[in-house]
Design a protein that fits this description.
- It is globular and about 55 Å long.
- The protein has helices spanning about 45-50, 75-80, 95-105, 115-125, 145-155, 175-190, 200-205, 225-230, 230-240, and strands at about 5-15, 15-30, 35, 60-65, 65, 80-85, 160-165, 195, 210-215, 220-225, 240-245, 250-260.
- With about 260 residues, the chain is α/β, with parallel strands linked by helices.
- It is built from nine helices and twelve strands.
- Strands 6-7-8-3-9-10 form a six-stranded mixed beta sheet, sandwiched between helices.
Amino acid sequence: MEHALKIDGLSVQYPNRQVITDLSLPSLPAGTLTAVIGPNAAGKTTFLRALAGLLPAAGEVRFGKWDLLRCRPAERARLVTYMPQSLPQGVALTVVEAIATALRAAPSSGPISAESIHAAVNAILRRLDIGHLALSPLDRLSGGQRQLVSLAQAIVRRPKILLLDEPTSALDPRHQIDVMEAVRESAITDRTIVLAVLHDLNLALRWADTIALLADGIVTASGPPEDAVTAQTLADAYKVAARIERCSRGQSHVLIDGKID
């Protein structure tokens, strides 16, 4: 039986301010992609870091029998993988070594043969179109290339819950598509629950099953893309005048006409 992710009353407080307040979402089933959107300083990264167990939080985050806010770190690590906005600097590994190391370190993988590691690494290099970087040292990659490698490290672990913080922010349009295709494939093929912070509203509309719109640490809209992203919800959260229109292929797009003072 597949488990859903249930987030109820999540709150995160820094020493001087409340960042997330009583955040709840409808159950997120296996095999789905949820885009987390919202203006700067809305609490999006804090939200993911709290789900990953990197920040103390109150409330309840359940996945099957597990309460992710209270289970042991090793137990949470078997279920959840978090991809930050960038890889740490000064890592003396090649791309292949970095991905293989992530796979070996995956708590849920158990013993894995060298042949299986080789096959998995090659598969994820192909999926993200970064085979040409296989032997490149991490410290010689561009920001966008490092972002792709970080995503490869996350997906190759095949977690139950995958948390991605701005996985497309440093990428050109082609590689944005590579990333979103790989994330979507991971959700469907591996039955992963994916939550991805995205700043590009049109990427969110195109690829997400569900969208959660945050503003000032509160969910102001959530649900299917056409319900969560409207002229009114964007006006309320971003303070912009916007239209949602369909192109000749029937795909919804956000058009920003100006600011709302």
